[in-house]
Automatic annotation (TrEMBL):
Its main location: membrane. It is found in: Cell membrane. InterPro entries: ABC_Gly_betaine_transp_sub-bd (IPR007210). One of its GO terms (molecular function) is amine transmembrane transporter activity. One of its GO terms (cellular component) is ATP-binding cassette (ABC) transporter complex. Keywords: Cell membrane, Membrane, Signal, Transport. Residues 47-298 form the ABC-type glycine betaine transport system substrate-binding domain. This is Glycine betaine ABC transporter substrate-binding protein. Gene3D superfamilies: Dipeptide-binding Protein, Domain 3, Glycine betaine-binding periplasmic protein, domain 2. One of its GO terms (biological process) is choline transport. Residues 1-24 form the signal peptide.
Length: 314
C-alpha cells in the first residue's frame, strides 16, 4: 500500500512540476513576445531604403528632406528620380519602397487605380495643391481659360497657339490634354507642347524677362511663385477639379520590412510654403541635399515633430 501511495505521490509531483514549468514557459513566451513587439517598434529592419520621386522639384525637395530624416536614424537611402509612370510601377513591383508625391484625387488618379492593390496609401503630406494654366500678371486681359478659347486680344496669334507644358507622362498633362483642352474648345487651334518641368520654367523666365505673353501648365507648390508675379487662370468649368492633396505611399510590406522608416514617412507633412522654400533654394543653385539640410537646420521644431518618439543615431 505504501509503495502504491509513493508512486501516486511521485506522479502528482511530476504533474505539478510539469504544470509549473509550462506556466513559466508561457509567461516567458508572453514576456518574449511583448519584448519582441516592443523591439519591433524601435527596430530599423531593412536598412536599405529606396525613395521614388518624379522629376518635379516640388516632389524632389520633399523627398530629400525625408531622405535626411531617415539617414538621421541609420538608414541607407537611395533616391530614384523617374517619370511618374515608372515611379508608380516601380513601387508596385517593389523596386522602390516609398514616395511622398502621390497627388489625389485628381492628378495621379489613373496611376492609383492601376496600382492601388499593390500600394499602401499613407499619411497626408500637403493639403490643397492646385493645377492651373498660368500666366504672368502683366497679361492683364487674360484671366480665364475662356479668354484663350475666345482668342481675347488675339492672344492665340501672339503665342502661335502654343501652351507650354511639361513632360508628357505627367498627370497634369493628361488632364490638360484629355479634359481641359476639349472642354473649352481649345483643340480647334491650340497645341499643348510637351517639354519638362525645368524647360517649362526656363521658357516662363525667358518670356517674363522680355515681358512677352506665355501660357504654361503650372501647379502649387512651385518655386516660380516665389520668383515671379503669376496668376492661375480661372477654370469656370472646373476641369482641373478641386485642389488635390499630396499623400505618402509605399509598396506593400514596407511597413513590416522597415518599421521605423515607415513611421517617419507617415509622420512627415508640411505646407505648400515650406515646400516652396526648399524648391527655391534648389532653384537658386543649392543641391537638393544642401537645400534639405538648410531647411531642417532652420526648422528644428518640424524636425522634432517628424522624428517624434524615435531615437536617432546621430
Amino acid at each position: 500500500m505504501r509503495k502504491k501511495f509513493r508512486i501516486i505521490s511521485i506522479m502528482i509531483m511530476l504533474m505539478l512540476s510539469a504544470a509549473l514549468t509550462a506556466c513559466g514557459d508561457n509567461e516567458k513566451a508572453t514576456s518574449d513576445d511583448d519584448e519582441s513587439a516592443k523591439d519591433g517598434e524601435l527596430k530599423l529592419g531593412e536598412k536599405q531604403v529606396t525613395l521614388a520621386t518624379d522629376t518635379y522639384v516640388s516632389n524632389i525637395g520633399a523627398t530629400h528632406v525625408v531622405k535626411q530624416l531617415l539617414e538621421e536614424v541609420g538608414y541607407n537611402v537611395t533616391v530614384k528620380e523617374t517619370d511618374v509612370g515608372i515611379e508608380f510601377s516601380g513601387l508596385a513591383s517593389g523596386s522602390s519602397d516609398a514616395s511622398v508625391g502621390l497627388w489625389l484625387p485628381g492628378t495621379h488618379a489613373s496611376y492609383w487605380e492601376e496600382y492601388k492593390d499593390k500600394l499602401d496609401k499613407m499619411s497626408l503630406v500637403t493639403e490643397e495643391v492646385e493645377l492651373a494654366l498660368t500666366v504672368p500678371t502683366y497679361m492683364e486681359d487674360i484671366n480665364s481659360i475662356e479668354d484663350l478659347a475666345n482668342n481675347k486680344n488675339n492672344i492665340g496669334e501672339k503665342l502661335e497657339w502654343d501652351i507650354t507644358g511639361i513632360s508628357p507622362g505627367a498627370g497634369m498633362m493628361e488632364i490638360t490634354k484629355e479634359k481641359v483642352i476639349p472642354s473649352y474648345g481649345l483643340d480647334k487651334d491650340w497645341t499643348l507642347q510637351s517639354s519638362s518641368g525645368p524647360a517649362m520654367a526656363a521658357e516662363l523666365k525667358g518670356a517674363i524677362d522680355k515681358k512677352e505673353p506665355i501660357v504654361v501648365t503650372l501647379w502649387t507648390p512651385h518655386w516660380t511663385f516665389n520668383e515671379f508675379d503669376l496668376k492661375m487662370l480661372e477654370d469656370p468649368k472646373n476641369q482641373y477639379g478641386d485642389p488635390d492633396n499630396v499623400f505618402a505611399v509605399s509598396r506593400n510590406g514596407f511597413k513590416e520590412d522597415s518599421p521605423l522608416a515607415y513611421k517617419i514617412i507617415d509622420q512627415f507633412n508640411w505646407t505648400k510654403k515650406q515646400n516652396q522654400d526648399v524648391m527655391y533654394s534648389i532653384q537658386s543653385g543649392m543641391s537638393s541635399e544642401e537645400a534639405a539640410k538648410k531647411f531642417l537646420e532652420k526648422h528644428p521644431d518640424l524636425k522634432g515633430k517628424w522624428l517624434e518618439g524615435i531615437e536617432t543615431e546621430k
